[in-house]
Specification:
heterodimer, A: alpha/beta, three-stranded antiparallel β-sheet, B: alpha/beta, three-stranded parallel β-sheet
């Protein structure tokens, strides 16, 4: 899932300072399950903003609405008829959600209520860890299902660096060395010999180094079929 | 916010199985408490979430009690 966390209340208050009527829009997908921008969090933030701005002497109208998925046009349609009632909209979706709304409804401004952090999973209640860096060229088959791009601080491809001590990365005592994990996993699978194969420098063009990425599936495109 | 202690609006979220039963018993024993204390029965105090506490304050409560 995409993992995000809410911006500090004062930062959000600064963003909405010039607006009188504000709509908070939550997202029912990733940010709901990481407790950052679902219905409940939208409700909490709206109440907090109403009370806080009232205490500051400039009480604002802050209403709430949550769509199932902000990153697809169709799910945002119900918002259309509401937007005229507001000066500004705070999206509690991920960065994709905020941009989708700005593109879809250019007559209105949408600002982010969350900081989008990474793609990861909850390793225990209340703890999320990064697992995928979306490099665009997956090598998990070579590393026993443990990603050195997302989990090694140096994104090394051929084993650990000197900062790996007793299975722990030098950057933080609670960060395991990805290559230690990879080695142990390969050992368990009886595949240590596979790690001996030298990995060449990674082609980063499929990652951010190639600029904004795009996938086109001609078999799915409606326009392509109409042109045939 | 009210200045007079008797007029303080207190919202008490009470668990059905203990605190609410205790409030009921207090009534049965003719024990008095200010009428400005509003008791809201919950199936369990674990049902409470921060939104309900904040909304109580937003709507004018001077204090919120969660009892269970």
């Amino acid at each position: 899932m995409i993992v995000a966390e809410q911006k500090p209340l004062n930062e959000i208050k600064t963003m909405i300072a010039d607006a009188e009527r504000v709509l908070l829009v939550g997202c029912g997908t990733c940010v709901t399950v990481c407790f950052a921008g679902g219905t409940k969090e939208v409700d909490l933030l709206a109440t907090s903003l109403r009370m806080s701005t009232k205490l500051d002497g400039n009480g604002k109208v802050v209403d709430e609405f949550t769509v199932q998925r902000q990153c697809e046009w169709e799910y945002n349609e119900p918002l259309k008829e509401k937007l005229d009632d507001y000066d500004l909209v705070v999206s509690l979706g991920c960065g994709v959600g905020v941009q989708t709304l700005n593109e879809q409804f250019p007559q209105k401004q949408f600002v982010p209520g969350l900081n989008t952090a990474f793609m990861g999973l909850p390793t225990e209640q209340g703890v999320w860890e990064e697992r995928c860096a979306a490099c665009g060229n997956c090598i998990l088959d070579k590393t026993g299902g443990i990603c050195p791009i997302a989990r090694c601080a140096k994104q090394l491809l051929n084993g650990p660096c000197g900062g790996s001590q007793n299975g722990v990365c030098e950057i933080e005592s609670d960060v395991p060395c990805a290559w230690q994990l990879i080695w142990e996993r390969a050992n368990d699978l009886g595949q240590i010999d596979r790690l001996m194969e030298l990995q060449p420098a990674k082609d980063w063009r499929t990652s951010r180094d190639g600029g904004p990425r795009k996938i086109v599936r001609e078999d799915l495109r409606l326009v392509a079929h109409e042109e045939e | 916010m009210s200045q007079n202690g008797d007029k303080l609006q207190i919202i008490a979220f009470c668990c059905h199985y203990c605190a609410y039963a205790a409030a009921d018993l207090a009534g049965g024993m003719r024990l008095k408490y200010p009428p400005s204390i509003k008791v809201i029965e919950l199936p369990c105090s674990g049902k409470i979430n921060p939104v309900q506490v904040l909304k109580a304050f937003e709507q004018g409560a001077d204090g919120v009690m969660v009892a269970g």
